[in-house]
Design a protein that fits this description.
- The structure is a single chain.
- The chain is mainly β.
- It has a domain of 146 residues.
- Helix content is 2%, strand content 38%.
- It contains 2 helices and 30 strands.
- The strands form 7 sheets. A 5-stranded antiparallel beta sheet has the order 1-3-30-29-28. It has a 5-stranded mixed beta sheet with strand order 2-27-26-25-24, with no helix packed on it.
């Protein structure tokens, strides 16, 4: 066993229980609480073996858990698939019901200062499709703030088999929401015909929405590339070789980098699209794994991850180097990688995006770019599971506050426990983790 202390909290571990309570919608915390807050040494107790070299924080953080409002009926399942963003001191995020062919998805704002958690976008109400027509069950893209003050994002299907003529499928939507006015509107419907839009990144200055697609025909595996001018509402460029699940945006130059083929677990060359010279992307000499990536730092670095490998990509020189292993346990799927935008020193992530993180204790990990240290800030399972009945199982959406003091995580999680010896996510919750100052030294 790893020398780091291990707490055998099997009595608290929901995943070993043979009891099951049916999930309830809308979900609620015990005793009708709107939120549950903990700052306990239990958050620092590992329940499984950790990789050598892993450090556990000395001071427990303050962790607050809330259910997303609006989960008033069973989803298939309620789930998070896209990355959130900060607008000032407000965290914006999205979840969906994953239903098909008539699904729905929603955007939320959470203000830490007021603790107000509000649903601000209802996709189905925004797109106003006739009864019986396809409506998306996911927001799989990023939420990104444009220089015009609008949040931009795109939609995706809840099932691969519903984007068909039977359900009047034409293509998915680019949408935008204005945080100040509360207005939401359609930017484009089917900018690429019969294509879903699961992958995105926004150039906030040039107002170009970049997307990688999934073909409406589930038998087709092509991923198209889209550069869409949201200001003038027209396609700037498109082709049949787009980014699988992530794209690097270099704010310093406006250039976008991505892999044109492959999927998870592959280290491949990057290609470059330059909006100043729209045309077929040009190959670079840099190769990385790219399931998730950070924003660009002031010294022109972007950090990318795929599985247990971390890379640094220099946007100025277009060179890459591998930084080594990243994970602390056995789970390897990381779908959101965030950098502290205050110090630019720390990366934060949760492995096990598709539901496996609880097997490692649902750890929030901090990676120190200066020292290469992997530090567990806290283990949320079973410290949150025992008192709330909710198991944090994985995430595709998280964000670090602008001052680097909080990490916001939108969870795929479980209420109700195991069914047929399996724990499945069915409900989304938000955790706000306040990082102790002693654990984030400048």
């Amino acid at each position: 066993m790893h020398p780091i202390r291990v707490a055998l909290l099997t009595g608290l571990c929901l995943c070993t229980s043979t009891l099951r309570a049916e999930p309830v919608y809308p979900p609620s915390l015990p005793y009708g609480q709107q939120q549950f807050t903990v700052s306990s040494p239990e958050l620092l107790h590992a329940t499984s073996e950790l990789k050598p070299g892993t450090v556990i924080a000395q001071t427990p953080p303050k962790v607050t858990l809330r259910y997303y409002p609006g989960q008033d009926y069973p989803g298939h399942p309620w789930s998070v698939w896209g990355d959130g963003t900060m607008v000032g001191d407000v965290y914006y995020s999205a979840i969906g019901d994953h239903l098909a062919p008539q699904g729905n998805a929603f955007v939320y704002r959470f203000d830490l200062a007021s603790s107000v958690f509000t649903q601000v976008v209802n996709v189905r109400e925004t797109i106003q499709m006739p009864e019986g027509h396809y409506t998306p069950g996911k927001i799989h893209s990023r939420l990104d703030l444009g220089g015009d003050g609008w949040l931009y994002f795109s939609t995706h299907r809840g099932s691969t088999r519903v984007t068909t003529d039977e359900h009047h499928y034409q293509g998915d939507w680019i949408l935008r929401h204005h945080p100040e006015s509360g207005r939401t509107e359609v930017v484009a419907h089917a900018p690429l015909p019969r294509q879903c839009l699961p992958t995105s990144v926004l150039d906030p200055d040039r107002l170009i929405f970049y997307a990688g697609t999934a073909d409406g025909d589930y038998k087709e595996k092509r991923v198209q590339f889209l550069a869409y001018d949201v200001k003038n509402r027209n396609v700037l460029y498109s082709d049949d070789a787009g980014p699988y699940r992530a794209a690097i945006f270099a704010k310093s130059t406006g250039k976008v980098y991505f892999q044109q083929a492959g999927g998870r677990g592959e280290t491949l060359p990057l290609v470059r699209f330059d909006p100043e010279h729209p045309g077929a992307p040009v190959a670079t000499k840099a190769s990385v794994g790219l399931r998730a990536c950070t924003i660009e730092s002031p010294d022109y670095k972007v950090y990318t991850v795929d599985g247990d490998q971390l890379w640094e990509f220099d946007t100025a020189s277009e060179t890459a180097r591998e930084l080594g292993g990243l994970i602390v346990g056995n789970e390897t799927y990381i779908a959101s990688l965030d950098i502290d935008p205050h110090t630019w020193r720390y990366l934060y992530f949760v492995a096990g995006a598709h539901g496996g993180s609880y097997r490692d204790g649902s750890p929030l990990v901090q990676y120190d770019l200066q020292t290469g240290t992997r530090k567990v800030i806290c283990f949320l399972h079973p410290a949150l599971t025992a008192p709330t009945g909710y198991t944090c199982m994985g995430t595709y959406g998280m964000c670090v506050s602008n001052d680097g003091t909080q990490v916001y995580i939108t969870w795929n999680g479980n209420q109700g426990g195991m069914e047929r010896n399996k724990l499945s996510f069915n409900t989304c919750a938000l955790s706000v983790i306040e990082i102790p100052e002693s654990e984030r030294q400048p």
